[in-house]
Amino acid sequence: MKKPLLYRSFNTRTHGVRHGSGFAYRYERHTKSEKSSLSSRGSMHSHQRHGFDYTPLFRFLLSKVGQPWDKVFSEANARLDRPEPVFWIVALHEVDKKEYVEMGGSTYYSGLFVDPAGLLQKVNPHLTPEQMKPFCNCCTHTFNGVVFPQAPR
User: Fold this and answer.
1) Radius of gyration, CA atoms only, the chain
2) 133: in domain
3) Residue 62: is it exposed, middle or buried by C-beta count within 10 angstroms (0-12/13-18/19+)?
4) How many domains does the chain have?
5) Quick check: 91 and 46 in contact, CB under 8 A?
6) d(CA 145, CA 100)
């Protein structure tokens, strides 16, 4: 039986959806200045990939805390379109470790790292949604999929 993918696609054609700064090209394409010559502009097509939700990957990685990293990464990589999203949440070097990682404006996940024994671990295993503080009152904030309380107004 084939295991499900660790990402899903979602609609990016909705009216008003903007991605990155690629739309700024339209403002400079008819200019005659030296700095916007055709040779310096580059491709009109962005190398960014939009329309993918990696929430299943982050949940998968959190469920594998304490297990051997090589085995976890091998399984995750086989079920992904590319390996980069794994390293948005997993730090391989001491300087890259973070207690939590922001994915979008109001979604947070525990930061993970590979310990010296080669096991996947949380950077701060004691961090809970109750300890998190929202950065605004207008959004619903989540930590590892659990909504954390709004700040008093």
Assistant:
1) 20
2) no
3) middle
4) 1
5) no
6) 13
Q: Residue 104: name the closest of 53, 148, 33 by CA.
A: 53
Residue 71 lies in a domain: yes
Domain carrying residue 62: 52-126
Residue 8's Cβ-side half-sphere holds a number of Cα atoms within 13 Å equal to 6
pLDDT tens sequence across 30-58:
555 555 444 444 444 444 455 788 999 99
Residue 10 counted as domain residue: no
Among the residues of the chain, which ranges form H helices? Answer: 25-28, 38-41, 55-63, 69-78
Quick one: which of 126, 123, 130, 109 has its CA closest to 55? Answer: 109
Instruction: Look up residue 109 and give its DSSP letter.
Output: E
3-class DSSP assignment, residue 104: coil
CA angle 45, 48, 53 (to 5 degrees): 135
Q: Let me know if residue 60 belongs to a domain.
A: yes
pLDDT in tens, 54-113: 999 999 999 999 999 999 999 999 999 999 999 999 999 999 999 999 988 789 999 999
